Amino acid sequence: MATCGAGSPARSARADGGRVSVQSHTAPAAARPRSAAGRAKLERRLRLAAPLIVLVALCLLLGVANPNFLSTGNFVRVATAASIPLVLTLGATFIILLGSIDLSIEGMMAVAAIVLTLLVANDSGGGFDIGLAAVPVAVAAGTAMGLFNGALHVGLRIPSFMATIGSWFIGLGTATILLGGGSVRILDPDIRALALTRLAGMPLSVWIALAALGVAWVIQTQTRFGRHVYAIGGGEDLAALSGVPIRRTKVIAFALAGTFYGLASVLAAAQLGLANAEIGTGRLFTTITAVVVGGTSLMGGQGGVLNALIGVLIVAVLANGMVLLGIPPYLQQAAQGLMIIVAVALSLDRSQLRIVK
């Protein structure tokens, strides 16, 4: 009995010790997932804040390297240079939020700009000369081409990459036919005023671009359509199961993008004072660069129009700064290419990637 009595406390102690031991091993194991979740959350926040941090750092560095960068005149130049890319990037953002891509920007710009030019006073000896009424017609031409893209992508189930490449070349071909490969100068002073008029020291085109940003933000954040775009980008199958109208949302997104492209083409034609099939040349690269650098994920479902603004400013500030520093054009292109690679590498959530194609 004594032995048993003595043994019971020992066994109890061993049992207690065992429980303590188990608890001491279990607590860190439970803490590890919480710690990992905390790190993942911090990494996501850093990825979201990274574009803004880059923009601020870039401005500070260029300001130190060349004091002229921080002058009022240079600020106006950067804002003017960013106005048209911003409007284009707003349209492209909605497409990329879907997880799709739109490569038809240059073709759409060519058609919309030529429609505008042929409907106002010009040096071709023809046209209808309807003045500012030509602006909504040109924007509507962009919307129509966007609807065409959406119909190809959704109706015929053609990947957006291929559908919009086709539209790109259709647009360029149509523009070339309309003008016979030449250019037409705009003589209408009201159209030219869209770029030349200044309000509070800024060209009117800058204020139009900011108004477009406001409209895009409302659409993205305050409408059911905006929520549907994010849902599709986050997972199309799950969105369909949740009752999201996939086909309709995609078609509307492409039409909306075309509307922004049409507006950008109006501003470009007003700024240049002419239109031709090459008016959008180089705009595609700048637009996609701004979307990616701004932090909108190419996978869809992450980012937004404010990211587009930051991305456009980064691209515009970098280009402006390199000119002020006297960097040759070919090195500027190399820097922009490197910027895309770095931006994509930093924006990817590799924990969600299983296969990279």
Automatic annotation (TrEMBL):
Biased composition (Low complexity): 27-36
Recorded topology in the membrane: Multi-pass membrane protein
Keyword Isomerase tagged: no
Keyword Transmembrane: yes
InterPro entries from the UniProt entry: ABC_transp_permease
One cellular component (GO) term of this entry: plasma membrane
Segments crossing the lipid bilayer: 48-69, 75-98, 105-121, 133-156, 168-187, 199-219, 251-274, 280-298, 305-324, 330-348
Keywords for this protein: Cell membrane, Membrane, Transmembrane, Transmembrane helix
Subcellular location: Cell membrane
GO molecular function: transmembrane transporter activity
Region (Disordered): 1-36
Protein name: ABC transporter permease
Organism: Inquilinus limosus
